[in-house]
Amino acid sequence: MLFNTILLALRDIRRNVMRSVLTILGIIIGVGAVITLVTIGNGTTAQVTGQIASMGTNVLMISPGQHRGPGQDSAAPSFTLQDVQAIRKEIGSLKAVAPVVSANATAVAGNKNWSTSITGSSNDFFIVRNWIIESGRTFEQAELLTGRAVCVVGQTVRKNLFAEDDPVGKNIRLGKVSCQVIGQLQEKGQSSMGRDQDDLIVMPLLTVQRRFSGNRDVAGIQLSVEDSGSTEQATEELIILLRKRRHLADSEEDNFNVRDTKELAAMLTGTTKTMTALLSAVAAVSLLVGGIGIMNIMLVSVTERTREIGIRLAIGAFEHEVMLQFLTESVVLSSLGGIVGIIIALISSYGITLMLELPFLPDFQIIIIAFLFSAAVGVIFGYFPALKAARLDPIDALRHE
Amino acid sequence: MTATAENAAPPFIRLRGITKAYGIGDALTYALHGVDLDIAKEDFVSIMGPSGSGKSTCMNILGCLDTPTSGQYLFGGLEVSRMSRKQLASLRRYYLGFVFQGFNLLNRTSAIENVELPLMYRGTPAKKRRELSRQALKIVGLEGRESHTPGELSGGQQQRVAIARAIVTSPAVLFADEPTGNLDTSRSHEIMELLVGLNQEKGITIVMVTHEPDMAEYSKRIIHFVDGHVATEKEAA
């Protein structure tokens, strides 16, 4: 009997190809859109989280002047190496403190050249920014104190100047300065702001001051707080110390700025969350639209189906047989649509994440929710009008307009 | 014949005081006001009457497609008016065949599948089902059209598929609502001869609604309906 009913249902699906396809299409769109969007959202979130970690945690960045919005930085005197030493001496719970100066230069090696940025700092820089030395070494004390022309290169610089060769021990020319590569850094990829983090050359602070900037200023200080320490407390102490060292009166505003990467991370995470929420909203709308599509098809065919039910009842079908047939039909159609939707969504979101270089992270909970929602719409709107029709006298079902 | 049947056991089909009302309150109208009717086994009855006289309503009640508002309906001694929906469905499934005025075939479904449908609900095995359906289609002269869908058949052919579907189960009673309504004269006569044959050879009781006196002449008895009750009953010529 059950076999017969399923057979009847399958025959009916085959007979009403158009209706079946449209119903399935509604489910495919609903399920497909939700899964694709949520998968991409997940990938983006994971990528941003990874980038925040690569930036270094518990990092404070001190720069001169006040940041009052884009392009409104006020001018203020730079820091000195004495400031760096004072910070190291007077503020506790610091893991590393790195003075930083920057310059731009075109690096030349053999017949290749590459325009990049140079960072002058100490070995603390690698600690603060979570850089790992892939091969070679960091600076020696003597190199730092005498300002020798040695450098550590990032992966983008290595790729552009040396292709696949090991750069350690080779020489590159930076403007008029010839310098020896003593190490290369491990790849980090894009920053969360879209900047290529691997496009850099690190040299001893003194070398950059002497050969490129031509003064003893320290443009910025980057430091990292011990994992157990609090960046908030360190920030407060830093502000007090620097105000004193820069001789600011109580009435004067800070002429320097301490930025906590935690705030940046919070901001980025917030943005990503907003994006994910937006994607989810779009996905929910797609699911709803798909559901309305299914509903329409089912309701439009109610008249025809009611007559069909009348015919079946008139020639001797039991109410429960007709219902079982319609239920089977709805379940088969909805599951088919759901499965096709899931497959299409997984394939397309895999393709999109591959294209956008995002991690592919399908959310199985969402897949199940989307599937159940669409299937429920299909079953409810396929089944309940049929239930209503099957409870009529056969003649009333036959007369249904 | 009716008289003799009444003296012995109750007849095969008996209606007593059957009424059918539509609407409620002021809009209440009666399609049938107390119909009394007896039909014996192997009878062939034509029901005639003007439009709105209640002949179709009466037929639908006889065919268990509609339920009367009040009155008694006995079928083979069983009280139909007290049956559950499931019992009514069983009655339709195992004893009754119905030919509708508007064919009521399933669209996009081949002729043979339409004819097989009542057998499917009876649980007849597939092979037997196919064989019986072919035979039924052959009886109505639609050999070779088994795989045509209703849309690909003419009105007359659709009517014959509907007849094949009604007779494929060899029902005890066949109800036909204007079975020749959509057919030309020669086809109509063929169909009537087919019904007479089923009545005589297979002993199927036939109740037919028609407004064509020519067609009514084929039956054994003609009942005239006027304003929702039986006006006259007479033996056919």
From TrEMBL, chain A:
The keyword Ribonucleoprotein does not apply. The chain crosses the membrane at residues 21-41, 277-302, 331-352, 364-384. It comes from the Bacteria. It is found in: Cell membrane. Keywords: Cell membrane, Membrane, Transmembrane, Transmembrane helix. Residues 20-238 form the MacB-like periplasmic core domain. It is a multi-pass membrane protein. Residues 281-394 form the ABC3 transporter permease C-terminal domain. InterPro entries: ABC3_permease_C, MacB_PCD, Macrolide_Exporter_MacB. Its main location: membrane. The keyword DNA repair does not apply. GO terms for cellular component: plasma membrane. One of its GO terms (molecular function) is transmembrane transporter activity. Belongs to the ABC-4 integral membrane protein family. This is ABC transport system permease protein.
UniProtKB/TrEMBL annotation, chain B:
The keyword Transport applies. It comes from Candidatus Electronema aureum. Keywords: ATP-binding, Nucleotide-binding, Transport. InterPro entries: AAA+_ATPase (IPR003593), ABC_transporter-like_ATP-bd (IPR003439), ABC_transporter-like_CS (IPR017871), ABC_transpr_LolD-like (IPR015854), MacB-like_ATP-bd (IPR017911), P-loop_NTPase (IPR027417). One of its GO terms (molecular function) is ATP hydrolysis activity. One of its GO terms (cellular component) is plasma membrane. It holds the Pfam family ABC_tran. Residues 13-236 form the ABC transporter domain. It comes from the Bacteria. The keyword Chaperone does not apply. This is ABC transport system ATP-binding protein. Belongs to the ABC transporter superfamily. Macrolide exporter (TC 3.A.1.122) family.
